[in-house]
Structures are given as C-alpha cells and as structure tokens.
Amino acid sequence: MLLADEQYVVQWLSQYGALPRTQLLKMLRKPPGTAEKMLKNLRRRGQIEDISGGYYVGLDPMCKPDQRTILAVWVLLKFFDQVGPMDHYPAIYPSQIFFLKENVGYEIVVLYESEQSLLRLLQPQEDLKYIIVLPHISMAEGLRLPRAPCLFATVEFQGKEEPEVRFYS
Q1: How distant, in Å, are the alpha carbons of 30, 72, 81, 157 from that of 127?
Q2: What is the pTM of this model?
Q3: Top-tier CATH class for 4-58
Q4: Longest CA pairwise span in the chain (Å)
Q5: Fold of 67-168
Q6: DSSP state of 43
Q7: Cβ contact 42:126 at 8 Å
Q8: Which residues have a Cβ under 8 Å from the Cβ of 78 and sit 6 or more positions away?
Q9: Which of 23, 24, 72, 115 is least surrounded by CB atoms within 10 angstroms?
Q10: Inter-residue long-range contacts of 81-88, CB under 8 Å, 24+ positions, other chains counted
C-alpha cells in the first residue's frame, strides 16, 4: 500500500506525464532527503521510472515529457503552498493546468512565439482567472485578452535547474 504522498506522485505523473525530478521533489513539500527516499521506494516497487538518465520521472520508460506542461507546473509551484496536493489537474486546451486557490479557479496557458491566436479559444467563466505564460513579456503587447482577469508570467532558466518565474499584471 502506498503512502498518501506516494499516491500523489503517481497521480501527478498520470495526469501530467513525465516531470523533472526537481519539480516532483518541490511538489512533495518534504525535506529533500525524505522526498528522494519516496521516489526511490516508488521506483523500487516499479510504480515510477527514471527517464533521460533520471532527469525526468514518469510512470513508464516510454513516457515523453511535455514542455508546455512542465512550464505550467513551474508556475503552479509558485502557488503550491496555497493549493491542495490534489486541487490541480490538466485543463482543456489551450490551457495546460487548472487549479483552485481560495475557491477561485485559475488556468495556466503556455504560449510560444506567434501563438497569440490560441487565446481566442479560451472560454472565460465567472470566478476564473488566467495566468498566461510567455517566452518574454514584450509579447504581451500584441495579445487580444479574454474577458477575464489575466496575469502574465515568464519562466527563465538562465542555466539553472530551477527557473525563475516572474509575474506581471
């Protein structure tokens, strides 16, 4: 039988596909040694697999990491202290992740260069806010925003394993 935190890891990987080990360790909110032991136990039981030499973790070795989802999870992690471990899940395209924070729904939408038109596919609802992740903040100037509160974010790695996430209004 799996511990609750181990069940979370399996659930997250089934929802999002392979994720960087660094993200899973942060999502577990445990001391690094404890979180590593959990991943090691799951791997030993055959519940998870290392991918790309252990940089990513997935449910099976053929799992492919989705870079949009990974960027969205980096943004989600900035709110993780205010979000329950199971209060987030994959969103409907073009959004990547939906999460609840203080009874308000948020969708994280990752856009690449020249994908501004994807925002037209969003279907705003009451009590829903968007976090639009852009490659660079100057891209925000040309966006046609949905009729809902929007926040912008950039995710910059700058040669580090853990990126810097910046928010703009």
Answers
A1: 32, 20, 20, 32
A2: 0.92
A3: mainly alpha
A4: 51
A5: Trna Endonuclease; Chain: A, domain 1 (3.40.1350)
A6: H
A7: no
A8: 165, 167
A9: 115
A10: 81/29, 85/5, 85/8, 85/27, 86/8, 86/11
